[in-house]
Design a protein that fits this description.
The complex is a heterodimer. By secondary structure, chain A is mainly alpha-helical. Chain A has 13 helices and no strands. Classes of the chains: A mainly alpha, B alpha+beta.
């Protein structure tokens, strides 16, 4: 361990825990991901390009990332409202609602997918009422978004909830005594305080939605060029023993995800600094 | 602006926080609500602010009923114990907040906001911190910013909830002197809540002593300290010695000591308590004629800066009493542990057990709405 890495600290065990953390991450995350890259390297450049830039594949990227983004954004708004209700008000059945939020975590995603597909198909409980308006959800890209909204809701609620709980009521009272209305208090006082948590929730929901497979394939209909997600394409290639092609697409997905998450993290940093006021230090 | 409280009543479940309280605060005064925790003082302040609603009773600002007015429209500045600053805003933006949230029609132009905030920053002597964030300030600095923020909207009434409660002793002393000076400059009707009697005595024009949701006494600092209306006020403000006593036909007997209590002329053999402040006691080496002293032995001598505190054990029953005197006075006759002394109280207040409020008619509370 060079002194460069060592922060002066009275807490022992830096070397040991760092070693463990790196080793653990390598074993669980880094080595499997490297395997994907190595597999992709088996291909020639032309083969690689064909695998990752075919129109059908490009369309699947657009759907996967687009739907994940929309679902995460949708949940950022409505997850905040759910968290707000759970934190600010006391009502009968509150614990039940609170527990309900975690259900998408626990439910096998295939079950979620089948249930959603049944509900939203054109003769399902919900789908039949949307049909007269010309809205079709099951077996369209819209269905993909619905499934992703379902599985990623808990991430936003659970990250925002503790921050809202920590927000003192006094701060809102102070704002009200200074003449601010409800909306102004939300926009100028509450929202800036929960913004970092909201962004974290968004990131988690987004990341989870990008990788989602089980629930989507049941409701999406999986029409090539229309409602086919990238993970499904990868599975399809694997089933055809096209391991190189599957690895190539995975690698592209990994790189895009990594770049997006990195960007959000940077954004998060500056947002957090603004919120806690450490920028001008 | 004057504030008038009429028959204010507030319960939290079974707990009575305010029990039909009446209070009038004349314009321009700095009033302290003083009492132990749970006495209802903060609830009263929050109802005046409109942050809490009363079950019954009215709040009048300048004679106008403000009971149902929303906190937004009351024109009060509120300062919280834990500052409640907006963490994500600079000091400057915190102070400007009240001006920025005004409806467009009455919002001052940007230049006016800047000028106003600068003036307030100067007033609280913190101009050089305008671009800092609250997390970078000390407690005392934060509270001054909170005060500047409240003053920015030019409130008619300034309400402070234990404003110095979270600060350490030195900063607290500094800030309360500063608050007093600020009030002398601005003359805004101000009410502050405190459980610190020293703070109330030093800063306030008038002290409202509260206990169990009721007002025990209203008066100037000198009045409540020198002439407490009730045993509670006596105990709450300053240290006291308590002596068991019996009152009979205008005389109270405390051990070997007899005190004239003319107001109890008709009382016969009633148990009572005699209250004596530690600094209202003379210690004599020799007994005096007549029943004017108690006998005791010195059990402890402590030097507390400018004061000397002596602990005594009274002769017959072994009860402990405290006496305070100046160092000079102690030096003139340095009593030692074990010395026998004769205790002569200079001032004694006697309260009957069963009717404490009627004890000293002259000092009864004046909270009957006659403008105190």
């Amino acid at each position: 361990m060079t002194p460069r890495f060592r922060h002066p600290s009275v807490l022992p065990g830096f070397g040991l825990t760092l070693g463990f953390a790196v080793g653990y991450l390598s074993l669980i995350v880094l080595i499997p991901l490297t395997m994907a890259f190595l597999r992709a390297l088996d291909l020639s450049w032309d083969q690689f390009w064909q695998a990752v830039a075919a129109p059908r594949v490009i369309a699947s990227y657009r759907l996967t990332f687009g739907a994940a983004f929309l679902a995460a954004a949708f949940n950022t708004v409505f997850g905040l409202i759910v968290a707000w209700v759970l934190v600010r008000y006391r009502f009968p059945g509150q614990r039940l609602v609170d527990a309900l939020v975690d259900l998408p975590f626990a439910l096998p995603t295939a079950v979620a997918g089948i249930t959603l597909a049944t509900l939203y198909s054109s003769n399902g409980w919900i789908g039949q009422y949307l049909k007269p308006f010309g809205i079709k959800i099951a077996f369209t890209p819209l269905g993909v978004i619905v499934a992703l909204v379902f599985i990623s809701l808990p991430f936003v609620v659970r990250t925002v909830q503790p921050v809202l709980e920590d927000l003192e009521a006094e701060v809102e009272e102070a704002a009200a005594s200074l003449g601010a209305g409800r909306w102004q208090i939300f926009r100028r006082v509450i929202f800036p305080a929960v913004r970092p948590a909201l962004l974290t929730g968004f990131t988690l929901a987004f990341a989870r939605a990008i990788g989602e497979y089980g629930s989507v394939i049941f409701i999406a209909g999986n029409l090539p060029m229309v409602s086919e997600i990238t993970p499904l394409l990868i599975v399809g290639k694997l089933e055809q023993y096209d391991y190189g092609g599957a690895a190539a697409v995975s690698v592209v997905m990994l790189i895009i995800s990594f770049i997006l998450l990195l960007l959000i993290n940077l954004l998060q940093r500056s947002s957090q600094a603004r919120s806690s006021g450490e920028v001008a230090a | 602006m004057s504030i008038e409280i009429q028959q204010l009543h507030k319960c939290f479940g079974a707990f009575v926080a305010l029990d039909h309280v009446d209070l009038t605060i004349p314009p321009g005064q700095l009033v302290a609500l003083l009492g132990p925790s749970g006495c209802g003082k903060t609830t009263l302040l929050r109802i005046i602010a409109g942050l809490e609603t009363a079950d019954r009773g009215r709040v009048l600002f300048d004679g106008e009923d403000a009971t149902r007015r929303h906190v937004r429209e009351r024109g009060v500045g509120f300062v919280f114990q834990h500052y409640a600053l907006f963490q994500h805003m600079t000091v400057f933006e915190n102070i400007a907040f009240g001006l920025r949230v005004r409806p467009r029609a009455v919002r001052p132009p940007e230049a006016a906001i800047r000028a106003k905030v600068s003036a307030l920053l100067d007033l609280v002597q913190m101009g050089w911190l305008a671009n800092r964030y609250p997390s970078q300030l000390s407690g005392g600095q934060r509270q001054r910013i909170a005060l500047a923020r409240a003053l920015a909207v030019e409130p008619q009434v300034l309400l402070l909830d234990e404003p110095f409660g979270a600060l350490d002793t030195k900063v607290r002393k500094e800030l309360r002197r500063w608050l007093r000076r600020l009030h002398d400059e601005l003359h805004i009707t101000s009410v502050f809540v405190t459980h610190d009697q020293e703070e109330a005595l030093e800063v306030a024009d008038r002290i409202v002593v509260m206990n169990h949701g009721r007002i025990e006494q209203i008066g100037s600092p000198q009045e409540v300290y020198d002439a407490p209306a009730t045993p509670f006020v006596y105990q709450f403000l300053g240290n006291i010695n308590l002596f068991h006593s019996r009152v009979h036909a205008g005389w109270a007997r405390v051990g070997g000591l007899r005190v004239r209590v003319p107001e109890y002329g008709d009382t016969e053999h009633a148990p009572a308590m005699a209250y004596v402040r530690p600094h209202d006691i003379d210690l004599l080496r020799e007994p005096e004629d007549g029943d004017t002293t108690l006998t005791a032995t010195i059990s402890r001598v402590s030097l507390l800066g400018s004061l000397v505190r002596l602990e005594l054990i009274q002769s017959p029953d072994g009860e402990i009493a405290e006496v305070e005197m100046t160092r000079e006075r102690y030096a003139a006759d340095p009593l030692q542990i074990g010395d026998l002394v004769f205790v002569k109280p200079r001032q004694v207040r006697v309260f009957l057990h069963d009717n404490p409020k009627a004890a000293i008619p002259a000092y009864q509370w004046s909270g009957d709405g006659d403008g105190i």
